[in-house]
Write a structure and sequence with these properties.
The structure holds three protein chains of three kinds. Chain A has helices at residues 15-19, 43-47, 84-100, 117-122, 141-155, 168-179, 252-255, 288-301, 309-313, 344-347, 379-398; strands at residues 3-5, 25-28, 31-34, 53-55, 71-75, 77-78, 81-82, 104-110, 127-132, 159-163, 183-187, 189-192, 199-205, 210-216, 222-226, 242-246, 257-264, 277-281, 304-307, 334-338, 355-360, 373-376. By secondary structure, chain A is α/β, with parallel strands linked by helices. Chain A has three domains: 3-55, Alpha-Beta Plaits, CATH 3.30.70.20; 71-253, HUPs (Rossmann fold, 3-Layer(aba) Sandwich), CATH 3.40.50; 272-398, 3-Layer(aba) Sandwich (Rossmann fold). A seven-stranded parallel sheet of chain A has the order 11-15-10-5-8-9-16, with helices on both faces. A five-stranded parallel sheet of chain A has the order 19-18-20-21-22. In chain A, helix 5 crosses helix 6. By secondary structure, chain B is an alpha+beta fold. Chain B has three domains: 6-113, Butyryl-Coa Dehydrogenase, subunit A, domain 1, CATH 1.10.540.10; 119-229, Butyryl-CoA Dehydrogenase, subunit A, domain 2, CATH 2.40.110; 235-375, Butyryl-CoA Dehydrogenase, subunit A, domain 3 (Up-down Bundle), CATH 1.20.140.10. Chain B contains twelve helices and nine strands. In chain B, the strands form three sheets. In chain B, strands 2-3-7-6 form a four-stranded antiparallel sheet, covered by helices on one side. Chain B has a three-stranded mixed sheet with strand order 1-4-5, covered by helices on one side. In chain B, helix 9 packs antiparallel against helix 10. Chain C has a single domain, classed as HUPs (Rossmann fold), CATH 3.40.50.620. Chain C has helices spanning 36-51, 67-76, 94-108, 128-135, 190-196, 246-259; strands spanning 2-7, 9-11, 17-18, 25-26, 32-34, 55-61, 80-84, 113-117, 140-150, 154-161, 164-171, 174-178, 203-206, 225-231, 240-242. In chain C, helix 2 packs across helix 5. The chains are: A alpha/beta, B alpha+beta, C alpha/beta. Chains in contact: A-B, A-C, B-C. At the A-C interface, helix 5, helix 6, strand 11, strand 13 and strand 14 of A face strand 3, helix 3, helix 4, strand 9 and strand 10 of C.
Chain lengths: 399, 377, 263
């Protein structure tokens, strides 16, 4: 793509020289000359009165992608264990594939992981691309990216989904650049545009203050990552799937990284301001023993424990756990307020929570005015019941 | 050429520091009332104490406007932290910088810039405040130096200081013409300090009395040459008043920010109290006073930077901005109503801290007299 | 050793709101900051400078006012900076951004180590770092929280995983994306900030011509993805009071929580 001057039409008026934002145009022997600083931005063409500046640039067109077919899911495994998000993605992939009248494929990479293929079929994969090699045993960016490039070039998928795990978020952008395709991170919603047949990728931006729907019109595969826990697992038990093995040509000297060790660490307390779920208590919890009940609920939910000023002053929680105007401000996805009335100074610290549950004996407690769901009742009855039911739910989901 | 605006850049940086490092601990620091050593060291690491001094002499290469911006932002977090910084940047080190020998610079000035030594300024005496001609601390010339005798009070940072810049009388007959500044390290024999005062506001700023009994200092520790003391004072007092005005602006902003936040949250009779006109009037007054304070203050700072005499403008700025701070803090406690009376909330602190600004840099009764005189009566 | 640190100026996201009528971002009066993860990347580079012979160059792209992020980085101790600013760069997705940054890095000459924040708080994509690495054909390690050793031709770093960490040896030159680690980012020094404001400060400002790209390859035009629409997430409170016996109300509540994927 270039821009050039038709010398016969140029009267050397210098308008283009002044219009160029990059100092790329100069007058030589009375005629405009475009130098190598030109970025083809077209400012000179607009400025020229004689239409003496021409370009071969074409308006952007959407390429024909009709030979790109299939919805692919990266089947992430660590140490031979399938990550739950991959199964979730297969559920969504089935839905997308049905709308597109295409099929679902899972990409399974590792060493000695063939046994996982059946699970992938059971949860929706029509095809499993199986790539096994000792070099692929533990995830490494370059090795896996290389495999993906081989597969994408060979099979031309329409859509490629990965979990937004620490591995998926490392691999997906690398693959996207490698295969020349756009990528949307951390989607919370995926659907097919009924008119254009392209993937609508919706994700939060600006810390969740804004939702954006993003499309990838100019490249294939349409790539997206999705956070774990967002999509639902859909069983496809009874269906058949085929396994296609692929032999990679990636070699150790290309990879550049060596894993020296993998260390598992027990989960530690997160900062309250970063907590996704918070269980908080106030005066109504009564005593430290009451807070132990809240602690059990928090453990069942994977939540952090917090409290009001009173709870702090009574010594039921440390200062760092006090929510409110004189404590910390939190914005979790879920805030469960137990036995606290919701005085303005407390509400100021938790109003921006996405969902608020209130449990309080007093039906007139102001906390109910800001709650999504309110339960009038004794904390000592409701909280243990909730803990039990949450545990039951998690049990079902983990099985 | 795309470049940052230094004033905006410094303001932004200090604002971020204040939001992250001062505001979250301001109430706690104020309650404890201890010298904020940790914050002081952080400010030193940022090189803020040298903001007014040239870079090639251990400073940061800024000016009075930047100095005022820093003071304003810090005061938005905690007035006492700002006043400690203000002292270290200006009064505590200024005469040492301009008149000290190379050796004194090495031994005291540069460590002060690094926050390792604290300098402070001794003017007021038990019987002489704004009336400088009445000071009685004597510097008597003796063989090889001076003997200093007297008592200074309301010495900001006095209990923490490593050295004092002390205004002394060299010849009582000359009254104002006889005053001069003398450099006195705290560890010199004959220097003693009282226990720190219990004060109403700015509780992390330690204040005490300092007594000098037959303190011998060498000749070069006389900072201002004979006859130049008053001029030196008149030169620094404009900057002190501009700085005090900047502290008052910071306090106004803190009171206003909290008032607005509360007025938009607190509900009474089914609506936020910010919807009530009487509350709106208070906010409107705060906002207008703030803008006027800024204009006066930064005009005087710009005049000082341009090398012009800014005493009148700085005096007006100090007077106006501090009165506006008093009013903003007062209205803030009213907007917070019952909570304004609670020691747990910030309103009470703003209210108490205004009292520090009222007398620092000259009482308003004296300043109004000066302003009236300049106006022609 | 030449270290390049990628930084981005971002709005302080907790304050960003959508105009309820137009659906556009309200940017007015929103404070801008250096992206927090990028501050940690810069801190890691400056810490390396204290123990190794290193020159730290900051690279940023943004509208003219984003120069403040560059100046602040200079204030923290970066030796020099390149600031990519051109209207043609505006509206870039991560594809076009990584291309532009990659081209600029090629123009900056020899580099041993590129450090970037894991992700920017305005987009949260975590894509630009790996995409730059791929453009330059360099190995990458993401989620780095500890740079343990730096040698002439390799580094040893710790990479955070959801349930622990990996210790990885990575060949140089390489690109690392950094998450908050042990070192708290330092505050800038006043004198350095003021130096960065001067014309002769070692900050180069480059446009599309300077890095030899066409305007069609960068910015909105060079992007592969487009934002089709933005909207405010649903936020209103339901205010539903659940009624019935303890077991029943809790069952209803649990169902609501599941429905909204909260458990």
């Amino acid at each position: 793509m270039a821009i050039w001057v038709e010398v016969d039409l140029c009267d050397g008026c210098r308008r283009c020289v002044r219009a160029c934002p990059y100092d790329a145009v100069e007058i030589r022997e009375g005629k405009a000359h475009i130098g190598d600083r030109c970025t083809s931005c077209g400012a000179c063409m607009e400025a020229c009165r004689n239409e003496a500046i021409l370009t071969d640039a074409q308006p952007r067109v959407v390429p024909d992608f009709s030979d790109y077919k299939g919805v692919w899911v990266f089947a992430e495994q660590r140490g031979g264990e399938l990550h739950r998000v991959s199964v979730e993605l297969l559920g969504k992939a089935q839905e997308l594939a049905t709308q597109l009248n295409q099929t679902v494929a899972a990409v399974l990479i590792g060493d000695g992981v063939a046994g996982l293929a059946d699970t992938l079929v059971e949860f929706g994969a029509d095809t499993v691309y199986l790539v096994e090699d000792a070099i692929l045993r533990d995830y490494r960016t370059e090795a896996y990216a290389h495999v993906f490039k081989e597969l994408v070039e060979a099979h031309k998928p329409n859509i490629l989904l990965m979990g937004a795990t620490h591995i998926g978020r490392d691999l997906a952008p690398r693959v996207s650049r490698r295969v020349g395709s756009g990528l949307t991170a951390d989607c919370t919603e995926l659907s097919i545009d009924p008119d254009e047949g392209i993937l609508l990728q919706t994700r939060p931006a600006f810390g969740g203050n804004v939702m954006a729907t993003i499309i990838n019109r100019y490249s294939r595969p349409q790539m997206a990552t999705v956070r774990p826990g967002v999509m639902e697992v859909v069983s496809a038990a009874g269906t058949q799937g085929s396994i296609v093995t692929h032999v990679t040509r990636v070699s150790e000297d290309r990879i550049g990284t060596k894993i020296l060790e993998i260390v598992k660490e027990p989960k530690t307390h997160t900062d309250l301001t970063e907590a996704k779920v918070i269980v908080a208590g106030g005066r109504g919890v009564g005593d430290a023993a009451g807070f132990e009940l809240l602690g059990e609920l928090a453990a069942a939910l994977g939540a952090e424990l917090a409290g009001t000023r009173v709870a702090f002053e009574e010594g039921w929680i440390p200062a760092s756990r006090q929510v409110g105007q004189t404590g910390v401000t939190v914005r979790p996805d879920l805030y469960i307020a137990c036995g606290l009335s919701g005085a303005i100074q407390h509400r100021a610290g938790m109003m921006d929570s996405k969902f608020i549950v209130a449990i309080n004996k007093d039906p007139y407690a102001p906390i109910f005015k800001v709650a999504d769901w309110g339960i009038v009742g004794d904390v000592f009855d409701v909280v243990p019941e909730l803990t039990a039911q949450v545990r039951a739910v998690c049990q079902v989901m983990c099985d | 050429m795309i470049r940052s605006n230094p004033e905006e850049l410094i303001r932004k940086t200090i604002a971020r520091f204040v939001d992250a490092e001062i505001i979250p601990v301001a109430q706690e620091l104020d309650n404890k009332g201890e010298f904020p050593r940790e914050i002081f060291e952080k400010l030193a690491r940022m090189g803020l104490f040298g903001i007014r001094y040239p870079r090639n002499k251990g400073g940061a290469g800024g000016n009075t406007t930047l100095y005022c911006i820093i003071c304003e932002e810090l005061a938005r977090g905690l007035v006492s932290v700002a006043s400690i910084t203000a002292m270290q940047c200006l009064m505590g080190t200024n005469f040492l910088f301009h008149y000290g020998t190379e050796e004194m610079r090495e031994q005291y000035f540069l460590p002060a810039m690094r926050g390792e030594k604290i300098g402070c300024f001794c003017m007021t005496e038990p019987d002489a405040g704004s009336d400088l001609g009445a000071i009685t601390t004597r510097a008597t010339e003796v063989d090889g130096g001076y003997l200093i005798n007297g008592m200074k009070t309301w010495v900001t940072d006095g209990p923490e200081a490593s050295f004092y810049t002390v205004m002394c009388q060299t010849d009582p007959k000359k009254r104002l013409r006889g005053i001069g500044y003398f450099f006195i390290p705290r560890d010199f024999p004959g220097v003693s300090t009282s226990p720190r005062f219990e004060c109403l506001g700015t509780r992390t700023t330690p204040i005490c009395e300092v007594a000098f009994k037959d303190v011998f200092i060498p000749k070069e520790y006389r900072l201002t040459p004979e006859g130049e003391g008053l001029n030196a004072f008149l030169k620094i007092i404009a900057e002190i008043r501009a700085m005090t005005a900047a502290l008052a602006i910071g306090l106004q902003r803190a009171a206003m920010d909290d008032s607005i936040k509360y007025a938009n949250e607190r509900v009474a009779s089914g609506q936020t109290i910010g919807k009530f006109q009487l509350i709106q009037a208070k906010i409107a007054n705060m906002a207008t006073n703030l803008e006027a304070s800024k204009l006066l203050t930064y005009k005087s700072a710009a005049m000082i930077d341009a090398g012009r005499d800014a005493l009148k403008e700085a005096t007006m700025a100090k007077y106006f901005a501090t009165e506006a701070a008093c009013s903003a803090a007062d209205e803030c406690t009213r907007i917070f109503a019952g909570y304004g009376y609670s020691m747990e909330y910030t309103a009470q602190r703003y209210y108490r801290d205004t009292r520090f600004l009222l007398s620092g840099g000259g009482t308003h009764e004296v300043l109004q007299g000066n302003i009236a005189r300049w106006a022609g009566v | 050793m030449n270290i390049i640190v990628l930084i981005k100026q971002v709005p302080n996201t907790t304050e960003v709101k959508l105009d309820p009528k137009t659906g556009n971002l309200i940017r007015e009066g929103v404070e801008t900051i250096i992206n927090p993860d990028d501050l940690h990347a810069l801190e890691a580079a400056l810490a390396l400078k204290e123990t190794h012979e290193a020159v730290v160059t900051v690279l940023s792209m943004g509208p003219p006012q984003a120069i403040d992020a560059v100046s602040e980085a200079m204030g923290m101790g970066a030796d020099k900076a390149v600031f990519l600013s051109d209207r043609a760069f505006a509206g870039a997705d991560t594809w076009a951004t990584s291309y532009t940054l990659g081209k600029a890095i090629q123009h900056m000459g020899e580099v041993d180590l590129i450090l970037a924040g894991r992700q920017a708080i305005d987009g949260d994509t975590a894509q630009v770092g790996p995409q730059v690495a791929d453009f330059l054909d360099l190995p990458q390690v993401t989620y780095v929280f500890d740079i343990q050793a730096v040698h002439a031709d390799y580094v040893v770093v710790k990479r955070r995983l959801e349930d622990g960490y990996e210790r990885i040896q990575c060949r140089l030159p390489a690109l690392l994306t950094v998450i908050p680690g042990a070192g708290k980012p330092r505050y800038p020094m006043a004198s350095r900030l003021l130096l960065a404001c001067r014309e002769k400060a070692p900050i180069q400002v480059w446009n599309a011509a300077d890095i030899r790209v066409t305007t069609a390859e960068v910015g909105l035009e060079g992007s592969l993805t487009q934002v089709m629409r933005t909207f405010a997430p649903k936020f209103e409170r339901r205010g539903t009071m659940l009624e019935g016996g303890t077991v029943d109300v809790v069952r209803t509540l649990t169902a609501h929580l599941r429905e909204n994927k909260l458990v």
